[in-house]
């Protein structure tokens, strides 16, 4: 580890700074950034060594309880990289950015999304919670504004009035979600990371991300569950 720790350069530092300012970065963007940082600081660049480059940064972040983690977008299966605070894995890490009732609205939105069938919650259902908050009730207009901020800050994603957890939120809060929603949260049977938007086998109950479903069944004539081998009754995306 000490040998690893010695290998950090200004290229690594620049990469970390840019990632920190973004919060999360898509894989292709991270690869471009890796190259640019190496070129700017005249450091040897190997196009297939991004994960090693990130490991070197992570060895320095370890004492600070921080880590750059790789995750997957549930929409298209693309890799993403996010900087994660390991010391506070809970929603409390958001406490410095939001008021108590905003945090309560986020928690309740999270409940709706995770306990839903498809990993989405409608804006109507979320806004109906605004005047039921225990901390301090919110007007609907106010709640709409707060939801907008959650989307801008990459905690939620919105599509046609439906909300789901952003990739950043899933990467950062995976442990929190798995331990706080033990009955509802499941890991994808294929990639083994947390699956919010997923299809579930009607026979044995395993879940799979939609991009993983697409990839797994691509080569199969008749889709069968990888766990129990029963016919996969969901529509293949």
Automatic annotation (TrEMBL):
<dbReference type="Pfam" id="PF07574">
    <property type="entry name" value="SMC_Nse1"/>
</dbReference>
<keyword id="KW-0227">DNA damage</keyword>
<dbReference type="Pfam" id="PF08746">
    <property type="entry name" value="zf-RING-like"/>
</dbReference>
<keyword id="KW-0808">Transferase</keyword>
<dbReference type="GO" id="GO:0030915">
    <property type="term" value="C:Smc5-Smc6 complex"/>
</dbReference>
<dbReference type="GO" id="GO:0000781">
    <property type="term" value="C:chromosome, telomeric region"/>
</dbReference>
<feature type="domain" description="RING-type">
    <location>
        <begin position="188"/>
        <end position="229"/>
    </location>
</feature>
<dbReference type="InterPro" id="IPR001841">
    <property type="entry name" value="Znf_RING"/>
</dbReference>
<dbReference type="InterPro" id="IPR011513">
    <property type="entry name" value="Nse1"/>
</dbReference>
<dbReference type="InterPro" id="IPR013083">
    <property type="entry name" value="Znf_RING/FYVE/PHD"/>
</dbReference>
<comment type="similarity">
    <text>Belongs to the NSE1 family.</text>
</comment>
<comment type="function">
    <text>RING-type zinc finger-containing E3 ubiquitin ligase that assembles with melanoma antigen protein (MAGE) to catalyze the direct transfer of ubiquitin from E2 ubiquitin-conjugating enzyme to a specific substrate. Involved in maintenance of genome integrity, DNA damage response and DNA repair.</text>
</comment>
<dbReference type="GO" id="GO:0061630">
    <property type="term" value="F:ubiquitin protein ligase activity"/>
</dbReference>
<keyword id="KW-0539">Nucleus</keyword>
<keyword id="KW-0833">Ubl conjugation pathway</keyword>
<keyword id="KW-0158">Chromosome</keyword>
<keyword id="KW-0863">Zinc-finger</keyword>
<dbReference type="GO" id="GO:0000724">
    <property type="term" value="P:double-strand break repair via homologous recombination"/>
</dbReference>
<keyword id="KW-0234">DNA repair</keyword>
<dbReference type="InterPro" id="IPR036388">
    <property type="entry name" value="WH-like_DNA-bd_sf"/>
</dbReference>
<comment type="subunit">
    <text>Component of the Smc5-Smc6 complex.</text>
</comment>
<dbReference type="InterPro" id="IPR014857">
    <property type="entry name" value="Nse1_RING_C4HC3-type"/>
</dbReference>
<protein>
    <recommendedName>
        <fullName>Non-structural maintenance of chromosomes element 1 homolog</fullName>
        <ecNumber>2.3.2.27</ecNumber>
    </recommendedName>
</protein>
<keyword id="KW-0779">Telomere</keyword>
<dbReference type="GO" id="GO:0005634">
    <property type="term" value="C:nucleus"/>
</dbReference>
<keyword id="KW-0862">Zinc</keyword>
<keyword id="KW-0233">DNA recombination</keyword>
<dbReference type="GO" id="GO:0008270">
    <property type="term" value="F:zinc ion binding"/>
</dbReference>
<keyword id="KW-0479">Metal-binding</keyword>
């Amino acid at each position: 580890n000490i040998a690893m720790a010695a290998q950090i350069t200004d290229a690594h530092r620049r990469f970390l700074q840019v990632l920190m300012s973004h919060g999360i970065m898509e894989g292709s963007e991270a690869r471009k950034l890796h190259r640019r940082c190496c070129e700017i600081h005249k450091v040897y660049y190997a196009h297939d060594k991004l994960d090693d480059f990130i490991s070197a940064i992570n060895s320095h972040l370890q004492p600070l309880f921080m880590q750059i983690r790789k995750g997957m977008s549930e929409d298209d299966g693309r890799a993403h990289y996010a900087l994660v605070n390991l010391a506070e894995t809970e929603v409390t890490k958001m406490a410095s950015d939001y008021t108590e009732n905003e945090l309560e609205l986020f928690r309740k939105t999270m409940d709706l999304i995770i306990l839903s069938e498809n990993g989405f919650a409608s804006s109507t259902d979320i806004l109906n919670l605004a005047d039921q908050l225990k901390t301090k009730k919110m007007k609907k207009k106010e709640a709409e504004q707060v939801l907008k901020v959650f989307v801008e800050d990459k905690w939620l994603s919105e599509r046609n009035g439906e909300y789901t957890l952003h990739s950043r939120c899933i990467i950062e809060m995976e442990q929190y979600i798995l331990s706080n929603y033990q009955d509802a949260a499941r890991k994808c049977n294929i990639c083994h990371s947390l699956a919010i938007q997923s299809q579930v086998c009607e026979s044995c109950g395993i879940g799979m991300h939609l991009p993983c479903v697409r990839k797994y069944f691509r080569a199969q004539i008749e889709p069968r569950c990888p766990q129990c081998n029963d016919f996969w009754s969901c529509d293949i995306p």
